[in-house]
Amino acid sequence: MFTDSHAHLEWESYEADFSEVLRRAKEAQVETILNIGTTLEHCKKGLEVAQSYPHIFASVGIHPHDANKVPTDYLDQLKALAQNPKVKAIGEIGLDYYYEHSPREIQLQRFEEQVRLAQKLNLPMSIHCRDAFQDCFNILNKVSYFQGVFHCFTGTQEEAKKVLELGFYISFSGIVTFKKSTALQEVVKYVPLEKMLIETDAPFLAPEPHRGKRNEPAFVVLTAQKIASLKKVSLEGVAHHTTQNAKCLFNLQEGQEWKEK
Ligand code: NI
User: Fold this and answer.
1) Total domain count for the chain?
2) What is the pTM of this model?
3) Would you list the DSSP string of 176-195?
């Protein structure tokens, strides 16, 4: 059984065939999905999806791209949403200096506020960090809260080492299947399975051989297969560890059967 620890299933691109997407996930043995919020509107939609299916859970948070577009009471709104038992994390939150869609100082402020919220609510974080590791580490150290995962990791081995030393998990996406991802593939070999999660980041970043198309949770198996071959372990081993890690980190329940809506 596999767990997709980071997907955005509330996106419009799933509206036409969502039941088919879920059916394919079930067939591929993707048992559990954590749906990740990016804006208040997306958080609300994602939570609706999670409430409709026993094996879909939700996180709420403001993505660094959208850090400059929040209302003044956004923390209260996130806090209210997080009271729902289906909400298992705060995210995705973090810093993105590659695209820099929001000014850095605003990103830093929003990230710190949301790390403090996660700490207050005792929820783990799904962290988005691109070209901003030192500032991410500075804020996490300043708040002194270290529960969570660095999602869709694309950093160096040295950055992975620091992430692990702080106690975080590292999640790999379909990017590890891309031919040119040789440096990242070395990082996969370095990160122990005991600290690893897998994800699709669907609808984005479809793994090979679907690169460039819409991604979906069933494809997380392709990333798991690549990781198994890189680490020279069984696919079952990757499935087992990454699922146990996700269940442990996000406190996901076990033993429920999939139910069609
Ligand atoms: Ni994402």
Assistant:
1) 1
2) 0.95
3) GGSTT-HHHHHHHHHS-GGG
